[in-house]
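Before our next group meeting I need something from you. Please put the record directly below this note.
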Amino acid sequence: MKTNKILSYTLAAMLLATASSCDLNEVPVDTATNEAVFSSEAGLELYANSFYDLLPNTDVGVFQIDDNSDLVARNGVDDYLAVNALSPITSSGWTWTQLRNINYYIENTQKSTVATKNHYLGVARFFRALFYFEKVKRFGDVPWIEETIDVNDDAALYGARMNRYEVMDKVLADLNFAIENITLTSDPSVTRITKNVARAYKTRIALFEASWRKYHTEDNKQSTADAWYEEVVKEANAINGYTLHSTVADKSYRELFLAKTAFADESILSVALSASLQVYSSANRRFISPTYGNRPSLTRRFINTYLNLDGTPFTSKAGYETTPFVEEVKNRDLRLKQTIRTGDYTRTENGLPVIAPPNFSQTNTGYQPIKWCYDERFPFDDESRNDNAHIVMRYAEVLLNKAEALAELGKMTAEDWTTTIGALRKRAGITGATLTTLPTKADPYMVSFFGGKFSNPVLLEVLRDRGTEMVFEGLRPDDLRRWKLGKLFQDAPMNGMYVPALGEYDLNGDGKNDVYFYQGTKPTSTTPGIAFVDVTPSTAVGRVQLSKGTSGEVIWNPGQREWADKKYLYPIPEADRIRNPALGQNPGW
C-alpha cells in the first residue's frame, strides 16, 4: 500500500510538472492529483525533485563549457563565436516551462498545511533564483513572473521586460529566502539542495553581479557593485562543515573529479551518475576521442600561469618562452600534472599501467587534459560511459569567490589570504611566502594576460588561481563576460608547446620519442606508435603550424572567431519577439 501511495505521488508530480509547454499562456490545470501532492511532505518532496532538471546536464557537462573560452583550443568554432552565425533567427533559450513549474509549486505550497512547507518553498525559490540568473546572463532584461499566468492575462503574456538589475534584486531575495528557510544544512550524498548549497550558489551569483555592475560601466551601476561583493564575503563566511579535500599531495585535486561518489569534505553539490542505472557522462569521450566532440586542449598562454613549486612565477624564469614541454612541466604547481598529461602519467591497458605521453592524434596543442577522465581506456574513451560524480559546486570555488570579492573591496588581510589562496596553493604543493603573504607587486605576465584590465597585485594572483583551480568546471566564459573581457574569446592565441626544430621529440622523458613534427612528405620513423604532425605552412582550418615556420610554438587554427560587444547578451529570438513586440531587442541585434 505504501509503495502504491508513493507511486501515486510520483505520477501526480510528473503530471503537474509536465502539464505545460514553452508558451507563457499554457499553464498547469488543477486536478484531483493536486491535493495528493500538496497535502503531505512526501508529495512536496517528490514534486520538488522535478526542479533538479535545472542543474547542469551530465552528458554535455560543466567540463565542456570552458571549451568556448580563452583557455582552450578546440575543434571548430561554436556558433556563439563563429562569423555571422549568431542572430535573432538562430538564437534560442527563451523558454519558460521550468519557471511555470516552479511558480505553480510555490503558489500551491503556500496554501498547504504541511508543517515543513517553508523548507520546500526555500528549495523552490532557490531554483527560481537559479532559473532567473541563467536568463539574465543570457538575455539581460527579462520579464519577472512570480505566479502562474492566467490564459487571459494579456498584461503578463504580452508585457515588456523588466530591467536586469531589478530582476537580480529579486534573485537575491529568493536566495536569501532559501538560505533562511531550507532546514537541511548538509547532505552526505552531496546531491540535495541544502542551506550550504544555497549559500555557495549565492557567492557565485553575487560575484557575477558585482563584477557586471563594476565593469559594464555603460550602465552606470558601479556604485552598487560593492554591496554585492559584500554579499559574497558574508555568505562565504557563513558556510560551514567543508574543507579542501587533501590526501596525497599529487593526487588530492584530481581525485575529486574521478570519485564515483563525490567527496563530501569539499564537494557541496554534485549530480550522481550510475553504471547500474545507465546514467553516464561523456567526459572521456569528449576529451580523448580523436573524432568525437570538441577535442579540447589547453593553451600555452594559460599553462604559463601555473606557478613553480617554490611559489615564483614560471614566467619569471629566463628562457621560459623556449622551454620544451618535457622541462616546462617539472617542479610546477601540482594541479598542472593533475590537469594535463605530464611526464609520469600512465593509463591502464589490460589491467597494467602504460606510460601515456600527450597524444597528438587527440590533442591540438600538446597540453592534453586528464581532469574528469578515467585512466582506463575501455569503455570510457570509445563510448559515453563515465560514471564519476558530476560536481557542480565545491568549496574551493567558494574560497575563490570570497578572495576575489575581498580583493575587489580592498579588504584582503594576511589571514584571509592564508585561508583562501594560501590554502589552495598549499594543497597544490606550493611552498614559500606566497602561502601567507599578500603579494605587493603585479606579475607583468598576468597584467598582460588580462590585456591590462587589472593591475591590483592581490586581485591578479586571485585570478591566477581561479584559472588553475577551476579550469574545465564551466566558469570561464561567464568570468570573461562579467569582467567585460569578451575580446579574449577572439584574441587569445590558440598556442601550444614549444618545438625547437622539426624532428622527433620525447614528451615525457622516458627515453622514447612520442611525436614527429615535419613539413612536406611524411617521413618514416623506427619508433613504434609515434604521432606524425604535419606543420607545412597553411592557412587551412584544422591545421597545426609552428609560430616561426620550422620552429616555435604550436599554433592551432580552429577557424575564424569573431567577437562583438553585443554578444555580451544573446539576441531575443525573432519568433518570440514577433509574438510579443513589447520584448524589443537587445542592443546591436
Residues 251-392 form one domain. The chain has four domains: 38-79+86-238, 251-392, 395-492, 495-557. The longest strand covers residues 267-271.
